[in-house]
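Lines hold sequence, tokenised fold; shown next:
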Amino acid sequence: MNNVYFVGTAGSGKSTMVGAFKKWLDDNEIDSIIINLDPGAEKLPYVPDIDIREWINLEDVMSQCGLGPNGAQIAAADLMAVNIDKISSVLDTYDVDYVLIDTPGQLELFAFRESSQVVVKALGKERSLMVYLSDPTLYRSANGFVSTMTLASLVQFRMNMPIINLLSKADVLKENEIDRILDWYNNPDSLYGCLLDEDKDPESVIGMELFRALEDTGVFGEMRSVSSETGVGLPEIYAAVQLQFHGGDDSGKDD
């Protein structure tokens, strides 16, 4: 089994994308299951096969620990590591090609807490990758693009696993907007030029420094536009996942 972690900022469309991708896999007769790792999720657009809420209830954490919603989310993230053996035991009963893992809505609860490292290791880090969804509303300017990609790079550095970058919610963008954003990622020189055009903005100075840091670390390459509403990009996600795990061969079905 290969683990695909769906990661991104709150509102980037992680859960809806997990549900849409699961349906696409089902339609193409590719075995998969979903793990929900968000104990604070009130409603989900899919039925999880393994649900952290069976062991951790956010309201119970708030009541027992005397915490507010934010504090309870942090405590629940740490309790996830305490209960990881239970999750692993249930996961071991499945024999599927892919495990789609929906991470907490608050990105920092997954990416920057030590408990998440425990979870990832227990579920098999050596056969895992991240699908990072970026909210297009944060990409309206070149500076916004650079700051968002800086966050994605920090997440990859922190989690230390392969990453697939996606431009989420492509259905809310005009075609020329999609082309511009994808060009920024695929062609750093284009992004550099747009940063220069924004030079009148004081933030552009910081943006230029972040751009140079990103270019030096080699994070630019390929980004795909996707939409859980229209299904655009779902085959491309699968192709990218296959490339990471199997070198592009459609061999996951036989594992």
